[in-house]
């Protein structure tokens, strides 16, 4: 049976920055780790919790969001409610781990899944899962390029002088294509577009498995360390 891969977190990350080349998979995977710790909110997410509480439509959501933190168990239950809802409509979705959060392995009718996924998310994972993943990946709401730079340093793919500016440049060189620069010219602003050729060395870094893990979750090393401590 054909499986389709769907990574909702990846879709959101693409809106934040230019992503590095990824290998397209035939299977749609959703990931969870039994040893992954609960995620507690840091102060930068207080407003996001308040917004989520205002949007809650079920008692489950209200209870999960009430204490300004989302436990691993609450996150798993939210995703399982989503999966059960899809199943109640005749679809099939499986969950598997990707550095601490879920992606979805759709093994049933894809068109059916697309037609009911938004409905099934309401009251289940629509509010809880994005907030949980944001906190998991970026507990202090740090600049994403800075998170990526630190992750690449820690896994040994770049030297310790590597900065968030270097990270942005690395992604441009790894992807190639057109880039635009805003220039000041006699008190005015104009855009200059130029073509960047793909740099094989930069591409090799971004296609490395450790770099792919950093892209999936820049804080994934912290998950492993926390689980060992607990």
Report a brief summary of the structure.
The chain has helices at residues 8-14, 46-55, 59-65, 72-88, 110-121, 128-137, 144-154, 164-175, 200-207, 209-216, 220-229, and strands at residues 4-6, 39-40, 69-70, 93-98, 101-106, 177-185, 188-196. By secondary structure, it is an alpha+beta fold. The chain is globular and about 55 Å long.
Characterize the structure shown:
This is Lipoprotein. It comes from Jonesiaceae bacterium BS-20. With 230 residues, this protein is α+β, with helices and mostly antiparallel strands. It has 11 helices and 7 strands. A 3-stranded antiparallel sheet has the order 1-5-4, covered by helices on one side. Strands 2-3 form a two-stranded antiparallel ribbon. Helix 7 packs across helix 8. It is globular, with a radius of gyration of 20 Å. The model is unreliable at 13-35 and 222-230 (pLDDT under 50).
User: How far is it from the N-terminal to the C-terminal residue, by CA?
Assistant: 39 Å
Order of helices and strands: EHEHHEHEEHHHHEEHHH
Q: Quickly give the structural class.
A: alpha+beta
Computed over alpha carbons, the radius of gyration is: 20 Å
Extended strand count: 7
Q: Roughly what is the average pLDDT, rounded to an integer?
A: 80
Percent range for helical residues?
A: 40-55%
Q: Categorize the overall geometry.
A: globular
Strand order of the largest sheet: 1-5-4
Number of helices: 11
Strand content: 15-25%
Instruction: Sketch the major β-sheet.
Output: 3 strands, antiparallel
Poorly predicted regions are 13-35, 222-230
């Amino acid at each position: 049976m054909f499986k389709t891969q769907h990574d909702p977190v990846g879709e959101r990350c693409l809106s934040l920055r230019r992503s590095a080349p990824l290998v397209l998979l035939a299977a749609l995977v959703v990931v969870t780790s039994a040893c992954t710790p609960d995620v507690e909110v840091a102060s930068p997410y207080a407003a996001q919790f308040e917004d989520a509480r205002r949007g809650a439509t079920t008692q489950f959501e209200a209870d999960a969001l009430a204490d300004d933190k989302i436990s691993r168990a609450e996150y798993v239950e939210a995703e399982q409610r989503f999966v059960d809802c899809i199943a109640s409509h005749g679809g099939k979705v499986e969950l598997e781990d990707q550095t601490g959060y879920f992606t979805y392995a759709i093994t049933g009718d894809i068109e059916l899944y697309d037609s009911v996924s938004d409905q099934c998310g309401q009251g289940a994972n629509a509010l809880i899962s994005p907030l949980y993943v944001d906190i998991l990946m970026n507990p202090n709401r740090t600049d994403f390029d800075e998170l990526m730079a630190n992750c690449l340093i820690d896994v040994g793919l770049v030297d310790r002088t590597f900065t968030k500016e270097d990270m942005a440049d690395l992604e441009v060189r790894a992807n190639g294509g057109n880039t635009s620069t805003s220039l000041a010219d006699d008190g005015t602003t104009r855009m200059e577009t130029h073509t960047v050729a793909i740099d094989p060395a930069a591409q090799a870094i971004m296609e490395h498995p450790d770099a792919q893990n950093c892209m999936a979750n820049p804080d994934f090393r912290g998950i492993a360390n926390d689980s060992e401590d607990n």
